[in-house]
Amino acid sequence: MEEVVSFHHVHKTYKNFLLRDVSFSVKKGFITGFIGPNGAGKTTTIKLMLDLVKPDSGEINLFNQTYQSNREEIKQRVGVVFSEHHLYQHLTIEKMKKVVSNFYSKWDDDRFEHYLKQFNLRPDQKIGQLSKGMGMKLSIAIALSHHADLIVLDEPTSALDPISRREILQLLMDVIQDEEKAVFFSTHITTDLEQIADYILFLHNGTVLLHDEKDAILDQHFIVRGATDLLDSDTRKLFLQVKETSFGFEALTNQASLVRRLMGDEVVMEKASLEEIMVYTIGDRSEIR
């Protein structure tokens, strides 16, 4: 499978934060979901991917090229949607299109008009009068209208109602149907990724904790519940994290078969969701939002 993006041992240091030895790839024809709590380094990673900041060390390749070797071609092939759009508030959508289209050699007016109709946006609407959700839809329309090979999205569905969210998710799945494009989708809404992602990249404290196929991650992680008297120094090693209450324990494991063999019917086991994997791994639900 062709790698559209690859990070090789990338480091980036700020005064109070360090991105450490980050390596991963984004594959053509697939959606990679990017998760992690606030402060994990997701924004820094996206900025590095877009050449908005430079790594201190390591190598970043897009389309088997570096920004140093072919920056302009790479920029033409990437579509970006940030959590807050940076479009000119005083312009109409039509005038904004004229500004943006000048930057892209493959800009497609027909495709842009198609997305405007799909999102119920009018060319004469002023951008400053759009709701946050409609502004996000406009950003997505722009990102998809110059035949980009990589679509990078930072929290694109956070401001949308459930119907609009479903519409955007379906659109992203449609984008990769020809297997020629890749989507890199950063979001806190892990249920969205459970619906559409093929791969998951999980970042915490500037370090990659998980990078694998989504189904493999979900198949490997289970929530286990049982009585606290089942826990001792040996059985605790079966779990990535354990939470104890007066009613018993609840824990996350990636050794399900061993837990079943040793604890059997004394525990209840069920597959963990992506959110549960995050919560148990970082230890605090409040950090996710």
Automatic annotation (TrEMBL):
Organism superkingdom: Bacteria
CDD domains recorded: ABC_DR_subfamily_A
Coiled-coil regions, chain positions: none
Any single Pfam family the record assigns to this protein: ABC_tran
Protein name as annotated: ABC transporter
Keywords: ATP-binding, Nucleotide-binding, Transport
Domain ABC transporter: 2-230
Sequence intervals crossing the membrane: none
Keyword hit for ATP-binding: yes
One Gene Ontology molecular-function label: ATP binding
Keyword ATP-binding in record: yes
